Amino acid sequence: MSDFLKLKSLIENHNRFILSTHVNPDADALGSQLAFFRILKKLGKKAWIINHSSTPYNLQFLDEENVIEKFDEKIHSQVINEAQIFFLLDLNQAERIVKMEKSLRNFKGLKVCIDHHLNSENIFDHIFGGDSYCATAEIVYDFIDETKIVDLDFEIALNLYAGIMTDTGSFRFDRTSPKIHRIMAILLEKGVNPTDVYDKIFDQFNFGRVKLLGYALGGMQLDSTKQISYMTVTRKMLVETGSSEADVDGFVNYCLTVKGVKIGILFYELNDGIKVSFRSKGEIAVNKLALQFGGGGHLNAAGIRFTNTKLEEIKEKIIDAAKLYL
């Protein structure tokens, strides 16, 4: 159970805040960030959202005021140094803010984590949330609901809805509880239009992304057990389709649509390495599989990033390791 009164006290007793989230942010990362930012602004606090990555084009509607800034050390070093609290939302490992990692580790103020993942790095002064939550946006909702720190308005509700909706897989994942649906009802009562939110996030992709998905699906393969499905996205494919790294988000989920498949794997070629995403069904703990290779995540959704590594060096090792979890 999170001590939300402690979090409220931290906010009330400080005035300058930095908010950041993980590389290639999804709707939960951005939604929880923006909702928390709006809490701080309602209280008259000074706050900055600074992220390593640009906001994906299909999520820019969540930030109509353009408050999210892309990290530039020359521009942001002073404002970070002058802040009193550095909030990380939707992640608990410093390396996942990439170029901002040094700024976080050297930060002289309080480091505070608001997150729903396992295996938190031991660098934080305070951690709020926990893996019982379906999304970081749910944590932010509970914080508002339990402390009444601000009124829940439409803008906050929109961001929380987007975060929870996407991190529950549009309400189909295991942690979609009766409580979640009650929260959604309250957010809808604030004026959130679920059709509009879903359309903007999932039905307004660039044509290049659709073509890239076609390439990825065309190259999907099954392992010898027929219970592991995997696909690969290369840099060449991105160039040919005019796509970006953000366009690859969600591809791995298609691996689990094959009958009999229990583990899905996406191999994605980065400029300086490989990103591997896992999805699974039932009690197959792909977070433990990811942990073997230095990654992490949830029971049914996890990932790893390899730097200075080529696809052929790790592909068979990953698949062979995954077989042991069937």
Spell out the key features of this protein:
326 residues; alpha/beta; inorganic pyrophosphatase (n-terminal core); Diaminopimelate Epimerase, Chain A, domain 1; 2 domains; six-stranded parallel beta sheet; six-stranded mixed beta sheet; 12 helices; globular
Write down the secondary-structure element order.
HEHEEHEHEEHHHHHEEHEEHEEH
What does the average pLDDT come to?
A: 96
Residue runs with pLDDT of under 50 for 5 or more positions:
none
State the total count of DSSP E strands: 12
Helix content: 25-40%
CATH superfamily placement of the largest domain = inorganic pyrophosphatase (n-terminal core)
Radius of gyration: 20 Å
Number of domains: 2
What would you say this structure looks like, in words?
The chain has 326 residues and is an alpha/beta fold. The protein has 2 domains: 4-201, inorganic pyrophosphatase (n-terminal core), CATH 3.90.1640.10; 207-323, Diaminopimelate Epimerase, Chain A, domain 1 (Roll). The chain has helices at residues 4-12, 27-42, 73-82, 101-105, 136-147, 154-167, 178-189, 194-202, 207-218, 235-241, 286-292, 311-323; strands at 16-20, 46-51, 68-70, 85-89, 110-115, 126-129, 221-222, 228-233, 263-269, 273-280, 296-297, 301-307. The strands form 2 sheets. It has a 6-stranded parallel beta sheet, with helices on both faces. The chain has a 6-stranded mixed beta sheet with strand order 7-8-9-10-12-11, with helices on both faces. Helix 1 (4-12) packs across helix 5 and helix 2 runs antiparallel to helix 6. The longest helix has 16 residues, at 27-42. The chain is globular, with a radius of gyration of 20 Å. The model has no long low-confidence stretch (mean pLDDT 96).
